[in-house]
Amino acid sequence: MDRQITSFIRALRSSDVRVSTGEALDAVRAVAMVGYADRALLKDTLGCVLAKSPDEKVTFDELFDVYFSRKDTTTESAGASEQSQEESSGATAKNTPQNLVELMESGDETAIATAIEKAASAAEVDDIRFSTQVAYYAQQMVKQMGGESLQARLLDALSQHTDEGEAEAERLIEMRRDLTMRARERTQRAFDVFGKGETRQFREDYAASKRLSALDRSDMERMKVLVAKIAKRLAVKHSRRRKKKSRGQLDVRRTMRANAGMDGVPFNVIWRQKKRERPKIVVVCDVSGSVAQYVRFLLLLLWSMKDVVPDLHAFAFSGRLYDVDEYLEDKPFEEAMAEIMRVAGLGSTSYGQAWSDLKVDHEQLIDRRTTLMVMGDGRSNYGDPRTDLFRDFASRAKRTIWLNPEGPGLWGTGDSEILRYRPYCNQMSHVATLKDLERAVDDVLSAYN
């Protein structure tokens, strides 16, 4: 039965429910105490150990009801079905019935359920990952139960070319259809438990690796969910408080002063502790047509982490520079982006004008604690890039990060001034996917640890 619990924990993990090794051991010990007889008690016990947040509780309830479901026939059948799961969990051989036809004709739901569970174990149905595998695993289950002999008997009945043979064939066809449907139901249940989370994770990994410029409208809702998960992951990572420990460089002066009353014997040792700075980000975004899609996801990610980075300021430009904090804070994100594009996204791109506006109106925001983050391709329509102003901003800031959606092979071609800005940046990166944005934001926040 421990295998049943570990399999259930595997299903939880595939559905984004975090379960540590210690919590898994606690679950096994708790179930050993309460047993499996009382379904409600089992659910409450596992829920207390494995579900730690409201979202995880919802996922736990859904998976528990599917994983520990029982066919509602009779009390005797239900108990036998539970026993069959216990036997199938330790099965290492096929254990197929000697006569599948007799089994199906008997109408013994207990024996049929036992055979189906054994076949599912032999076919390793719980390894299913995608919905397209349901038919394959169902066929493997039928094969494990003796489906080949049933098929041979069906062909023999059809070859007789008699009324009795046709009647027998019809009966066998109906029997095979019933068996196949049972196998598909068992396989679908395995997919609902083990496969859906894996499929969702596969789709999210694919979406996170897809070029943001290639996304269409149908991808937006999924990407919003994915951005929220990334923001939560980064927030947990960078909001974690470090435990103070006796380590680091010895502070001799403070140690001697603290032990002056003990004849200088250093009973109380004091270590120098480096103060952790609070993150401060000023993000300047080129919202011209070639970059706007990337800006959308960068701002969505950053504003989803406002609790971690409360000192966050955003500016958008194509020609003139605009402070867009008010739009992002007071309106739903999609409405805010539409307003930002309407206000700042209609002019001819001019990085020089943007730096001039930043100098005149907002230079005081950039100090030694500030990370200046720029999202843009550096194409300024052959205007003056005002690298002198950008150099001043970079010298005032803690770090200067430039995120460029164009590949390095295009840097410096045509009206691109990106190579003239690069000497003043601590880091200049090519960002094409959501994973690239996550990595860039993670690096920025890590600099404050």
Keyphrases for this structure?
3 domains, VWA containing CoxE family protein, two-stranded antiparallel ribbon, 19 helices, Rossmann fold, six-stranded mixed beta sheet, alpha/beta, 449 residues, Uncharacterised_CoxE
SSE topology:
Elements: H1 2-14, H2 21-34, H3 39-50, H4 54-67, H5 75-89, H6 100-106, H7 109-122, H8 134-144, H9 147-159, H10 163-208, H11 220-238, E1 249-250, H12 252-258, E2 271-272, E3 280-286, H13 292-303, E4 311-317, E5 321-323, H14 325-330, H15 333-344, H16 351-362, E6 370-375, H17 387-396, E7 399-404, H18 418-421, E8 427-430, H19 434-446
Parallel strand pairs: 3-4, 3-6, 6-7, 7-8
Antiparallel strand pairs: 1-2, 4-5
Helix pairs in contact: 1-10, 2-3, 5-7, 7-8, 8-10, 9-10, 11-13, 11-19, 13-19, 16-17
Description:
By secondary structure, the chain is α/β, with parallel strands linked by helices. It has three domains: 2-205, no CATH class; 243-275, no CATH class; 280-446, 3-Layer(aba) Sandwich (Rossmann fold), CATH 3.40.50. It has helices at 2-14, 21-34, 39-50, 54-67, 75-89, 100-106, 109-122, 134-144, 147-159, 163-208, 220-238, 252-258, 292-303, 325-330, 333-344, 351-362, 387-396, 418-421, 434-446; strands at residues 249-250, 271-272, 280-286, 311-317, 321-323, 370-375, 399-404, 427-430. The strands form two sheets. A six-stranded mixed β-sheet has the order 5-4-3-6-7-8, with helices on both faces. A two-stranded antiparallel ribbon has the order 1-2. It is flat and about 95 Å long.
